Give the backbone structure.
Amino acid sequence: MYHQTLEEKVLRDPIHEYIHVDLQLIWDLINSREVQRLRRIHQLGVSMMVYHTAEHSRFSHSLGVYEITRRMIDEVSGLKDQLTDFEQVALLCAALLHDVGHGPFSHAFENVSHVHHELLSIQLITQPSHIHSILMEADPRLPEAIAKILSHRYEKPLLSQIISGPIDADRMDYLLRDAYFTGTSYGQFDIERILRTLRIEGERLVVKESGVHAIEDYIMARYHMYWQVYYHPVSRSTEVMISSLFQRMKDCIEQGIETFDSAPFIQAFLSTQKISNDTIMNLDEVSFLSLLMTLQTHHDKILSDLSSRVLHRRLFGYVDFKSNKQKEKLIDNIKKAGYDPHYYFDEDKATQAPYRPYKEDQQSQIWILTQQGLKELSTVSVIVAAIVKGKEKEDIKLYAPKECL
Amino acid sequence: MYHQTLEEKVLRDPIHEYIHVDLQLIWDLINSREVQRLRRIHQLGVSMMVYHTAEHSRFSHSLGVYEITRRMIDEVSGLKDQLTDFEQVALLCAALLHDVGHGPFSHAFENVSHVHHELLSIQLITQPSHIHSILMEADPRLPEAIAKILSHRYEKPLLSQIISGPIDADRMDYLLRDAYFTGTSYGQFDIERILRTLRIEGERLVVKESGVHAIEDYIMARYHMYWQVYYHPVSRSTEVMISSLFQRMKDCIEQGIETFDSAPFIQAFLSTQKISNDTIMNLDEVSFLSLLMTLQTHHDKILSDLSSRVLHRRLFGYVDFKSNKQKEKLIDNIKKAGYDPHYYFDEDKATQAPYRPYKEDQQSQIWILTQQGLKELSTVSVIVAAIVKGKEKEDIKLYAPKECL
Amino acid sequence: MYHQTLEEKVLRDPIHEYIHVDLQLIWDLINSREVQRLRRIHQLGVSMMVYHTAEHSRFSHSLGVYEITRRMIDEVSGLKDQLTDFEQVALLCAALLHDVGHGPFSHAFENVSHVHHELLSIQLITQPSHIHSILMEADPRLPEAIAKILSHRYEKPLLSQIISGPIDADRMDYLLRDAYFTGTSYGQFDIERILRTLRIEGERLVVKESGVHAIEDYIMARYHMYWQVYYHPVSRSTEVMISSLFQRMKDCIEQGIETFDSAPFIQAFLSTQKISNDTIMNLDEVSFLSLLMTLQTHHDKILSDLSSRVLHRRLFGYVDFKSNKQKEKLIDNIKKAGYDPHYYFDEDKATQAPYRPYKEDQQSQIWILTQQGLKELSTVSVIVAAIVKGKEKEDIKLYAPKECL
Amino acid sequence: MYHQTLEEKVLRDPIHEYIHVDLQLIWDLINSREVQRLRRIHQLGVSMMVYHTAEHSRFSHSLGVYEITRRMIDEVSGLKDQLTDFEQVALLCAALLHDVGHGPFSHAFENVSHVHHELLSIQLITQPSHIHSILMEADPRLPEAIAKILSHRYEKPLLSQIISGPIDADRMDYLLRDAYFTGTSYGQFDIERILRTLRIEGERLVVKESGVHAIEDYIMARYHMYWQVYYHPVSRSTEVMISSLFQRMKDCIEQGIETFDSAPFIQAFLSTQKISNDTIMNLDEVSFLSLLMTLQTHHDKILSDLSSRVLHRRLFGYVDFKSNKQKEKLIDNIKKAGYDPHYYFDEDKATQAPYRPYKEDQQSQIWILTQQGLKELSTVSVIVAAIVKGKEKEDIKLYAPKECL
């Protein structure tokens, strides 16, 4: 049974002091092959190229999201009462497994393959796999319930919000964790105060008015982490190059240049084949980088050059986009230098608003519990109001081999 | 001579790791009676009532401002070249002495007495005192130069900006220090990065474009510290009460009720007398709280009641201001309860904008050094632009004895 | 009733994140005159002369000891079951009030007056006072129970051990707190792990074997804090001078030179008079430093000189003790310089062993719960065993005015 | 030329705030293929199995050792004067490259292969490779000088001591770094104070007496990290298993069962072949784990079972060694369960003294500069003296599949 308990196990964690586990089911999931595989995928694959200590994995992030969720169930006033025992367990599993389908350099991958990691997570949970069998044995209703929570289809939206909403366990963990491991102070915010001021109103997770400053801080943390870390131009350069490499692989398959027999996961991801759970299990940074190593000597010059560049950090350079004329001139240079712009050029636009409570996107609204009832955050915080009305920051860069810039 | 050096002395400091002193003159000033007196004045006199660990003194803050200034001279690219040896020393002294005229609960005091601590600082520096004689012995030009730096009259405005400008040593130290000692995370920002990206352009301290995010963070830190700490309603309650008490003392003197012979500093501050340097030296929290203790049994009921309330933390309560009618009703209640609203009521308005680069107030503008030349911060940072255009936050509260609310 | 609860109140604290208060009784005690008075007594009165940021008060330490005790009751496996509801409350009160009788510079004071702060704490609790009446109203059995806990006379020794034993809330708070506020890293140890590995065996607080490393670290933290902070020679110099000043005051009273009418607390402390609770209330650093200020101009040259030295930090110098001959020569110099060695000389011996589990002093033994049963710490830890067998560190210094050394 | 400077580059680092690079040569080495390869080798390969966030690489550690060395050259009083410009550069290179020959899970590897990473580092530096050519271009004397520094054969022993001595840049970085990334507090010590109190005496790096407490703390940090992290029984279990796996690979080669043609690095390491620089370049965790993945389905049952166990964290269990009889019984159980004890059993002894200044091992002695001249640490520190005289801690464990214990 899923509520079979153990002597509580604790894992030391720099973000949360300890990760507490007292359900056998959670312990078994942590030790499953699919979750252990996340040790072999960096949380910030491309940011490592800039922040050399950002070497943490999706495994430790998954433990962190689980731990915040566990604390929310225990500590957020009124939450436990809204959840059945079953739902509490399903929610904890969903937290731990929310990223289980992630592959290496997912964003670059998904640019080319159009298979999204969210779908793979759900597939690993609901179709035969190690975690699937662990879940089935604990309670056969679990896989379906977890899948619904993760895809925002569970009957009580609250459960999905806790994992993925405007103030969720996922984001709170990754901001704190990425800040710690990059060694920047930007991602800091007062999670203790946020947890203390969260409340349940109707079916919604809201924040008491006394928590508004902590929320403002959290929004700014998010904003800074995006611009200082996630959108760092050198990270984006790495991502652009990996996308090009995937594109070239895909084109090679389509043009019959290469079949990648030794890397079946690539075939599956770059074609329209159904991807099996076994294939997902074989996809991690080890297998991907290992493929890159062999590609360095491939007869296809683009494959070998791009692989070698990524492995040895000879990254594309970049300039700010100024005009289409400038762009055309750059593409010209690229061609003159003997490169194919299809793979050796990219225009990359980064844009991020700290907080956007669009009418049409209720899911991103943060609600504040005031003495006069619930109010949307930007009506309570003058700083957020200012930001909402302000212009979105955007940054367009052109990427190409350095000698062409 | 002022550049006589010592074997470098270091003082452990949680904010800056160490305070480094290698000039005999600075060491002598630190040990002067006027600077040691700052040990007896809390940096955040009224905030201690809310944040119980905010017990740090103006003494440690003064050392911190000195240390940041010392680092700026050493580390800000191009700064040293703009300063003569004499100016470097004068600047260090100005940093250490910038708050030397502060008294206990200065803001409450200054509401009533209209003597400002800035003027007292200058008086202590330029007229006979212990620090005056230390300075004169080192170089007779020092007192005047320091006074000019502190009052923004020095011929090179850069020197004044370093102590007191939009990004200055004073503010950088107090934000970090107050955050550390209150135990909040709000005041954190990346001072290392700011120091690395400061530059001198013309006669101005400016920030390289790569430092914009650190500056945004610093502005938000300031904003949060104001609302979370400095404007905390309970702190303001304490300030309101101390102001009332000063007002009552002043009125008692004017009405011949009391002369405060045993506390000559009070007489001086609350009358139009010239305040001597000796009087300033006798003014600290020890002498002030000691006076309060004796006042607890004073025959004047208002003096005794307010003193006792402050000492034993029986503070006024507060409500948000809603209407003049509400306010009148409250004043009525106060009267009915037998209190004189002149002393037992206050309307306190707090207002603070994170950053206001008004045209007319060039001193508060932060300038960014971009590839296209100098630009004012809000034209470079979309987040600051948003804030500048937004509404100022303001908060009006009414204070009175709790039973009247 | 004492278990009347409030909406939980929390106080931000840098050591424990938050101090949690959910009993009205505790809240009332915190706001009592006697506990608020502790705001006016520095935790490390003399260390401030060396570590300028060590400006925290006994008030915040008292809150910290309360908080650790509260956590121990909640978190130490098996502890709650050993305590009645009444005992839990009494224990929390004892934690909060354990230092309530402390005066300014207690150690220097107690060298001369032989009134110990522990006795004054008990007097304030058991005889009419503000806290006494708060306690009586909550439960008339409380004052006696708390007094017994604090004086190790309570029938279950466990309660006393929690406040004052080899691993107690008092020491854990002050090591962490003093480290934080001095800005040193020496006092750090892993309190989370210690709390997790504490167990109750029989009537004793013991540590699970898996906590031995955390305990070793705690013992080293203690050792380092003693030598780096508490026994710093400049701190000891301040203490020596304050002792001399007290001695001179006492002698002046006895010789009829001065009666200190304006400082009745001094009369009481330095004579054989019974000290009333009112007298204790008037004794704090404010009243003491205020007395020192007036003494600066006293006609007794020793009183005025020593007061002025302490206030303006003109401290005695020191040399290591080498021989009696050296000592005699120094005393001679002191006399020749016109000083009375009775007040201007001291031989101060500091000695501290990290851990001394003497047979005769069972209270200082730390017991470890191993698979083979309870074992005394030094039989389990080779590092502690080594230390126990080693020589005690001692340090003898001679103090005198600098010009005599 | 090697002293060609760049605009200083900085890399954010949580341990040292920033890594500062101002030599083109160092920048080129950081970006070399051999140093970038260290990104693919975890600093604490087996500890990750216990401390899930210990996912940092030898790459970031190498940067850290470089940075401490850089600071030592700049900040240790008198050091710069002892070094020629050439030696300063050679020392910085040696710091950065000291671990460049490390492979994955080196300790387990070296148990079986008897090729040591120190030799491989020297081979990569002195024989044709990417770093070799970078060094040669800067100054042809560099490879030899660096090799001598790393192997303690350089004419001035001081240079070697800085990288690898009793208080060296290597250890200082790894203790702080491993503590940060495991999230434990054990490895903390005051590196600022150590750097401030280091001095050069004769040709030796020594510590001023005022640094003794910081050194005591450093020694305890080392001790605790060994027992809490490096010798954690679960880490050792992983190491034991990887050793067994290497052993099995070696035996398979010798017995002609498998040739590992697809993993040429394994052939080289496990035979007596000369290992080429290209082979080293192909050896990292990616290639090793990738090999393990393919071995999971190998027809040799031991290879496939051990590979699968390591990848999916089905680790051996352990018991404390008590007697030879117990051990024989365990081996019997292992055989009965159908396992070959040659691969499924190990007796592992961990032993570590915090500090051992053996007469015969002068290199591990720490010297303190006192007013009475140089003294060996244990004659100055009573706590170290106690530890030196104490018994060494040792811990012998028996490892086997859990069901056999």
